[in-house]
Every structure is written in structure tokens, then in C-alpha cells.
Amino acid sequence: MNAITSYFKDIFHAIKTLLTGMRVTGYYFSHARKEIITQQYPENRDTLKMFDRFRGIVTLTHDENNEHACTGCSACEIACPNGTIEIISDREEDPETGKKKKIIDKFIYHYSMCTLCNLCIISCPTDAIKMDPSFEYATFDRKDLTMILNKPGSKIRKDVK
Amino acid sequence: MIEEVETKDAIKTQEYFVNMGPQHPSTHGVLRLMLELDGEIIKKVTPHIGYIHRSIEKMSEKDSYRQIVHLTDRMDYLSNHMNNEAVCLLVENALEVEVSDRVKVIRTIMSELTRLSSHQLWWGVMGMDLGALTTFLYAFRDREMINDIFEETCGARLTVNYNVPGGVMFDIHPNFQQRVKDFIKSFKTKLPEYDDLLSNNVIFRQRTEGVGILSKEDAISYGVTGPTGRASGFSNDTRKHKPYSAYDRVEFKEILMDKGDTFSRYKARILEMWESVSIIEQLIDNIPEGDIQEPSVKQVIKLPKGEFYQSVETARGELGVYVVSDGQKSPYRLKFRSPGFSNLFVLDHMVRGYKIADLVAMMSTIDLVIPDIDR
Amino acid sequence: MKEPLDLTPLTQSIHDYLLSYLSPFWTTTVEWVIIGVLLIAFVALSVMGLVYIERKVAAFFQLRLGPNRVGKWGLLQTLADFLKLLMKEHITSKNADKFLFNLAPFIIVIASFLAIGAIPFALGLQAMDINIGLFYITAASSIGVLGILIGGWAGNNKYSLIGALRSGAQVVSYEISAVLSLLTIVVLSGSLQLSTIIESQSDGWWIFKGHLPVFIAFIMFLIAGTAETNRGPFDLAEAESELTAGFHTEYSGIKFAMFFLAEYVNLFIIAAVGATVFLGGWMPFHIGNWAAFNEVMNYIPPVIWFFFKVGFVIGLIMWFKWTFPRLRIDQLLVLEWKYLLPINLVNLIVVAFIAMMGWYF
Questions:
Q1: What are the boundaries of each domain within chain B?
Q2: pLDDT tens digits for C303-321?
Q3: A54 at the C interface (CB within 8 A)?
Q4: B118, B188, C223, C275: which has the highest count of C-beta atoms within 10 A?
């Protein structure tokens, strides 16, 4: 007799647990309009706002006078674990003081090797480079991923030491 | 060797091999298991690893201590904060630097959030391995909120690289506390749904209860740590035994089960999620003020000569970092004791005599992350 | 009182029209061709619809949007998928048994086509109303497992073989339960002919008339039917997380599409049989003496009633699939032989007793 009661108890317990599971999925099915969490990505480009700190790509900030703050000290180059950054620097005579001063010729950035670890940004003494929250950098050609970050004709800002 | 097995009806059957992986839906990555099968019964499992070996330990030997941290994100990518923390704690201990309370609390909250997100993903995948495909998306819905928290504060969702030796990279975002509270509030209503969908489900119970039993002795001798070991009654929570960061100032239970079957391992993780929620609740409202980076840690870190070891509790078990330093700015030798590696090799011991379907269930309760095993 | 829309005059007039031009032999042949073409078109369309519905339903269960790129609301998604499968390369593995490998998809599709011929879509819209209709459908649809077994064997893949053997054990066992639960209605209505079974429900569907035992039989039929179509919690033959794709691991392109097609046709058949036998087929929903209500219900054409009910059953089966974890093979057989079969047998005896005493409405 005990075996029979436990047999039926098992069945009722099983049905009960199965129905509880179905209630959960059923709730989400019937409230799908409210509960759906997926976003439709390319369509929501305009409204999609990345977080400020999102690490998308390393940029060298230029102001409106086409001037940047990079002194070419190579701190970022040393801090980078992957050899992503290469700085080719030059020496130029300062017209005012007449002293020779180090300036950057090319700030080469290999995006394909970058792990976006942010170590270069925190190592920069003049806050010249920063992480930009932009994305969509996929290309068909690997060489597009090697970028020169300083804009042509750009100069170092006067006040940067 | 293929052996011919004689059954009692004198029908000759043959054992055969099946290669499960490296490309297989339930090996969770590029793990290859050589199964020796008699029908559906598993006679032996031989894990073959190394398909995603990136020599992180060797790379660490040329990297500075600051640079090593970002490599650890890529080991057990679901326990990224804990991995970071392990290296940072080791450096701080070696330099005998004490970080501020603020950093300790932030690190603890972040670690527990990571543990939650890892366990959520595990829960979703566990359901999927057992054929309940819907659980995966529900888990991801909840995990998304944690990822948003990480993205806002750390700048990345998975490879966060938030800890630096001597502190954390940024201060927490102004929205951080509110977001964490929102998450905790919503997750507390969602967690009982996990039970409704899987834990109490009769099919799930049948699949997991009494299957793949791992005794306490075996768990200890195989070095199985984390929830997997604790489900067998092996008390191994590093957070309790060797408290680091702010774990000595919060109250939490070490989840210990006694059965050691697949269901215990499942339940241990579900209960651990409740514990993590309670730890975060204790800390989130009282984050003390303080420096986020210890000024005495210089840009170029040189560890004193000697050997150092630091272990932390990741979502999978005890992660140990062992460094031999010769006084240079990069370690002479660095070794990670990854929890996944020890946990994987107990699989053969557990699975013999069970069916293929049980293997899948056991594999997901061990909670393997293959990059963690290969490194 | 308005009678349900009868399509018999339409089919009869086509028959008479053909007979006036052709000999009886050619009339039958032409009718066969017409029915064949209609059924193929129907199957192709309904499977496309079903796949789309399944994907949308699954998405809504899973908090997703589902297909939404191809066409309005992704309506053309399945068409695009079908075209893709059509253009894919046929890959036959090196040591496969080529003849059987190519034969298996056809067997499985033919089996489901055979079964669909006997399904009554509406009053007078039934390809063959044979007096053993229910028996014929169950017999024809169980040929399908041969296709699975052959396909799993011929691919020369161990995963396929395991899947095929699992499926063999599963379908053979669950066939019994499915048939036993259908027998309860056969006992009550006293016929195997589907039109008679529907006729017997003109004053109320069996699920309402037959008290608890018929309800139990309906649940049993749903479980067994889900298992027979290798779906939901019983998809051991495919078992994506264990056997990658089970019996059709080695199939690609249009051959895979045929397995896919057969799966959904079988789903439709199971739902259609369930709807016909338990839920009154194309019979409108009537409540006792509410003449006005019943009148309104009669205005809805029988075809719509039929598809509405089929949709209901399919919805239930999909709900199972997207909620429950999969069973293990031994538990699957335990469920059949220790639970479903004894309950079904007892249930059948109870129903037979009810039928004998005339205790149903």
C-alpha cells in the first residue's frame, strides 16, 4: 500500500514541479512585450550610448588649434604589454628659447595588437592619450588597423612641459 | 585498447572510442574528451587539453608586474576580477604594502559581482547542457546587469583589468552603488525563478540526484576546490581560511554539502549566489573613504628576491599564484595553480559507469572554463 | 440552426466534372495527382509557417525578438533558410553506406506524407476517409523511425548511431502509449474512422464529455506524441548537447532539410490527431443549451476551428520543449514502462467501463 501511495505521490509531485516551471516560462511568454531584453543593434545606433569609461580605442586628443599634449616621452610605449604603440620622435629647435626639444614625428598605434588594458592611458604623464568609447572598427584589411594618431601638421601644446 | 567484452548472453560487443570535442556543444570551449564507451556506458574518459594554450605563464616572465594583471583576465575570463586580484595581492604582500580600506571593499564587491556573474552563466549553461535551452537566456538577462556595472566602472565588460598593484585603476563610478543596489533588488526576485525552472524540476532532479558521486576523500586527494569540492564536504574556501581584502569583515557561510553528487554541486552554487548577494549587501552601503591607489607603489615595480604565493577564491575554486622573483622588474618564474585543471581531472574518476548524458551533466557542474585549464 | 460549412459538395462537383470527361480510372488518377500536389504544397507552406512560429515562440519564451530581418517581422526567414539549404553542398562521408544514406531522408518524409493523407481538415476535406483511419495514421507515422535508424546507421558516425538507437528504443516504446490513449476514444466512439469519431463529438468534445479518464488520456497522448516526434524533453535522438546533432549529424543541405521537414510534419500530425480525437476536429465549440452562442460558433468555418485546435496542441508541445530539461535514455524508458503504460491500461479499462455503462454525456 505504501508503495502505491508513494507511486501516486511521485506522479503528483512531478506534475506540480513541471507546472511550476511552465508557469515561469509562460509568464515570460505572455509578457514578452514588456520583458524582451534584446536590442536591435544597427538600428539603435543613434540612441546607443556607450559608458564614458568604455574602452574602445586609444586616441590622441587634439584641440581646436590642432595641438596635442604628447611630449614623446614613450611612457606609454614602455607600459604597453603588447608593443601596440610605437613613437617615432624627432628633435626640433624651439624658436623662442633656441633649445632643442623632443617632438613626436609619428605616433603609431597598432590596433590589431591592442588588448585595451588601459595601462598606456594611466601611465601618460600629460594625459595626452585617452580611451574613446567609439567602436565598430572591423575592417577587411589588416593594415587599416595600424593608425597614426597624431594628425598631420599637429603641434605640441605650448603649456605642456 | 579496444577490448571485446563478453556479455552474459554470449553476444560479443565491442568497446569503442568517441572523440567528444574539441568542437562540441557541451565541452564549453576547446576541450577534447576521449570517451571509451560500451554502448552508452562510459568506461573511461581521457581529457586532452592544450587547444587554447597561450603560454600566459611564459609571457608573464617578460612582462612587468603591472602588465601581468591584464593577462590574467584572459585565463578564467569569468572570474576576471579575482584573477586580477590574485596577482595584485601577491605584489602588495611581497612589497609589504597595505592598501586602503576603500580599495579592499571595492575589490571585494567586484569579486562577488564577478562570482555572481560567473555562477549565473554557469546556471544558464547547465540548463542548456541538460536540454532546457531557455535557462541560458534568463541567466544572460541577469548577467547583463552585472556586465553593465563593470562596463560603467571599469570600462570593459569581460577583460576588465580593473585592479592594479596597490589599488584599483579608477575610483568607482558615481552610479555604481545605485546600480549594484538595483541589481541586487532585481536579482533577489529572479533567483527563486532559477529554482522553479531547474532546481525543483522533477526531470532535472532525476538527472542529477545520486549521479557522479565524489567522496570527500577523493575530493581532497584530487585537490578539487571551489563549489565542486565543497559539495563533497571538503572545506576549502580561501575566503574563510585565509581571508584577503575585506572578507574578514563580512559575515558569510561557507556552503558545505555532504552528498557530493551532481545535484549537491548544483545546489552549492545556487546557495553561493545567495551568500554573494548577502556579502554585497553588507558592503555596498558603507564603502569607506580612502586612496584608490597606494602612493608608495611605484610605476616600475621590483619585487624583492624570493618566492611568493597568494591564493584567492575564484568562482571555480582556489586560484594560486606562485612567483619566484630574482629582484628584477619581471618574475623569474610565475605559476598559476588554476582550479579548473585539478577539477577537470577528477572527471574520469566520477564518470565511470555512467552514461553519456550524465557525463554532460557532471561536466557542467564542474564548471569548466577551458582557457583557465590551458592558460 | 446553421449547419457547419460542408465542403463535400465542392469535392463531389469536382469529381463529377472530371467523370464527365474521363473514364473512372483516369478520374481517380487525376484526383490523386491533384491531392498529391495540394498536400505537398500544404506541407511545404505549413512547415515553413511552423518553423517560423516555433522560432518566434521560442524567442518570446527566451526574452528575445526572434527572426526579424528577412521580410516584415522576419516572415521570409524560413524561406531564406530553405533556399540556403537547397543550395548547400551534399556531403557524404567517406565510409558511409551511400544507398542507405540517401534513402533515409526519403523514408522519413514519405512516412509523414502517408500519415497526413488521412487527416480530416474540415467537413468533407479529407483525402482518404478510410474506416481504419486512426490505425492507418499511427501505422504510417511509425514507419518514420525506420528512416531515423537507417540514417543514423548509414552516416558511419558514432554519434548518429547512438542517436538512432536511442530513437529506436524511444519510438517503439512510446508508440504503445500513444495508441493506447487513442484507443480510449475509439472505445467511446466505437469506430476507428476519423469522420465517425468527429461525428460522435457533435454534441461536445470528448475531452469534456469523457470526464477525467479522457483528460488523462489526452495528457498521456501529449506526452507520448511529443516523445514520438523526438521533440521537447524527449529529443534524445538529437540531444544537441550530448550527440551534437544525433542521427542527422552527417547530413547536410537538402537531405538535412528533409529530416527537418519530417520533424515538423510529424509535429503537425500529432497535433492534428490529438485535436481530431480529443478536441473534436473541425467541430465548433458548443456549450450545452446556449443556442445563440452555438449559432455564432457555427459561423466560424470548420477549417479555422481545426487549425485553431491544432495550433493549441502545437503551442502546448512547444511550451514543453522550451521549458523542460531533457530526460536520460533509461529514465525515458522508465517513464514509459513504469508510468505511462500501466496508467494507460488502467485508464483504458476505466473508459471501457464508462462506455459500457453509458456514463458519458
A1: 53-374
A2: 788 888 888 888 888 888 8
A3: no
A4: B118
